[in-house]
Amino acid sequence: MILATDCGSTTSKARFFKKIGDQYRFVASGEAPTTVEAPYEDVRMGVRNAIREVEELTGQKILAEAGIISPREGSRGVDLYVTTSSAGGGLQMMVAGVIKSMTAESAERAALGAGAIVMDTIAIDDGRLLYEKIDSMRALRPDMILIAGGTDGGTITHVARTVEMVASAEPKPRLGLGYELPIVYAGNKDARDYVTKLLGTKFALKLVDNIRPDLETERTEPARDAIHELFMEHVMSHAPGYDRLMKWTSVPIMPTPSAEGKMIRTIAETFNANVIGVGLGGATTNVYSVFDGKFVRTVSANLGMSYSICNVLKEAGFENIIRWLPFEIEASDVRNRLRNKMIRPTTIPQTLRDMVIEHAVAREALRMGFKHHKLLARPLRGAKTRKDIGDMLARGGGFGETYIDMLRVDWIVGTGGLLSHAPRRAQSALILIDAFQPEGVTRLAVDSVFMMPHLGVLSTVHPKAAVEIFEKDCLIRLGTCIAPKGDITAHSGPIMSLKLEMPDGTTMAKEVATGTIQRIPLQEHESAKIEIHPAKGFDLGAGAGHFLNTLVQGGVVGIILDARGRPLSLPSNNERRAKLVEWSRALNSYPPSIFEVTAS
User: Fold this and answer.
1) Are 453 and 29 in contact (CB under 8 A)?
2) Is 368 helix (H, G, I), strand (E, B) or coil?
3) CA within 13 Å, CB half, 548
4) Candidate ranges 52-56, 199-203, 225-229; pick with highest mean pLDDT
5) Residue-wise pLDDT tens digits, 521-568
6) Which of 153, 374, 384, 549 could be a cystine partner for 402, CB 3.0 to 4.6 Å?
7) Dihedrals φ, ψ of 427, to 5°?
8) CA–CA distance from 455 to each of 121, 281, 338, 471, 568 (Å)?
């Protein structure tokens, strides 16, 4: 019997797993508000409340006064307890490098990959004056700083300037004034003696291998490992209640984003696929990609669905939120509803209108989070690249472009409370499609009850159990989205025609009109052969206007034929609202009463 918990910024979740026969399966879950903040300031209270729900559902006695009962004896205790956390703001870091688009960007990728929120990125060429950078370090009070810069054997002058700046600022840690701020140095190895001299007595300094030993190489693993080690040793031990929670488990507490990222990589390895994943949380939106074997994680710290929901409104703008609503609403009404959510983060929508508004905000949070992600999911700056003229023309000269090609993305996977707990799975499917705008043929999936973080930390000690539960109980296959890439503004008539051979041997022919969404039922674990002919100028991955033969997989929603064009542009006013209702009806994503709301 295994118990896994996740201390989120809003909710603490407990998941109970058990070996049934020769397989590990998910059994029960419990949830309770997180208690890391005042007036409680003890994360264990929320964890205990979540675990008590599991006890009531299973009849297994898990909690004692001192913590988790382990090892298990019959109906008392569990064999293993693991936990993750992003409560209290998670791991908040600053990174510093020499060149913003090179070593500083590599340092940012390393910190994000370790599950951190990057509060600020400092570089010599970031456009700020020296005193502004020092003010930022003093004001933000990070949990940790990562310093990179220079190639091994190169000049140490610029690295020294960065280190001197940190030494002059003397930044203080966010939690606990009585301990030294951890600093990871992952720059030019020739500067280590100077770094130790300046920082060794003032900070908890950790020296690791250079992130960019040469311009052609990026090696983030040593820095990520050091960040995890210092996070447990220094940061977690000073957060409210974590020092006592750590004694409940023999497995290190893992940042929630790191655990989610491990499961996204598991999907990519299991299906040998290019994957985009997203964790939509209360305070942050974490986007993950595994593309041609390269793993990147980014966090948008101001985009979330509870504490940060008003920031989504601020960043996206009122017009971008209401474009997803099939009814008229005043700007003040939207602001008030979102403010109520921000100050009461554990509440859930009480009406259909409230839920549709939250889903509109989710689309914008995901859209902006993915836009930010693509800024870091790009080739190494400074590395020598060989490009032919056609490639340079296709990519607009080759500067700053992302390597993520949506036509080659095989899976889009969502996790987080809103996506996992949507009343209808079609709602999650439509949110993912609208936000990420998949092109070609893309499979969609969501986390069934938000257990990816739990399985991520479990995989570090019991990979067999984690993979079995993941495949059988975690991953809900929504279906396959087929969306031709191309501009529909000047196109009329069908955008594609297709012929399907269903699992029972029957065939189906269909034309898909421009600007529509259609659904073909196809169950989970079923597949159908399909031949698709896109209209001239539209691409499904085989080239513009070229037909595609492939095998499509079903799901709880089925096959979704999206003929709205890429990039997706919505019509305005009444026509837009009518289209939103039409698309909702096509997928049966919302109950019929939404159309009554629209009419009123």
Assistant:
1) no
2) helix
3) 22
4) 52-56
5) 999 989 999 999 999 999 999 999 999 999 999 999 999 999 999 999
6) 374
7) -65, -45
8) 31, 17, 32, 11, 35
Is the pLDDT assigned to residue 388 strictly greater than 60?
Answer: no
Q: Could you tell me how many residues make up the chain?
A: 600
User: What burial letters (b/e) apply to 75-105, b meaning 16+ CB within 10 Å?
Assistant: eebbebbbbbbbbbbbbbbbbbbbbbbbbbb
DSSP string, 10-24: SEEEEEEEEEETTEE
- Residue 482 CA to residue 501 CA, distance in Å, equals 16
Tokens of 430: 């439509």
CA distance 194 to 311: 41
Residue identified by tokens 């990057």 is 118
Name the pairing type of β-strands 411-415 and 294-300: unpaired
Rounded CA separation 487/395 (Å): 18
Q: Report the distance separating Cα 164 and Cα 555, nearest Å.
A: 56
Token representation of residue 439 = 């092109």
Task: Tell the residue number behind the tokens 């707990």, with chain if given.
Answer: 421
Q: If you compute the radius of gyration of the chain from its CA atoms, what whole number of angstroms results?
A: 25
Q: Hey, what's the torsion of the CAs at 408, 409, 410, 411, to 10 degrees?
A: 180
Rounded Cα gap, residues 541 and 537, in angstroms: 12
Taking the CA of residue 134 as centre, how many other CA atoms within 13 Å lie in the half-sphere pointing to its CB?
A: 12
Beta bridge partners of 276: 289, 412
Question: Is the backbone peptide bond immediately before 252 cis, with ω within 30 degrees of 0?
Answer: no
Rounded CA-CA distance 36/47 in Å is 10
Q: Kind of pairing, strands 63-64 and 23-33?
A: unpaired
pLDDT higher than 90, residue 148: yes
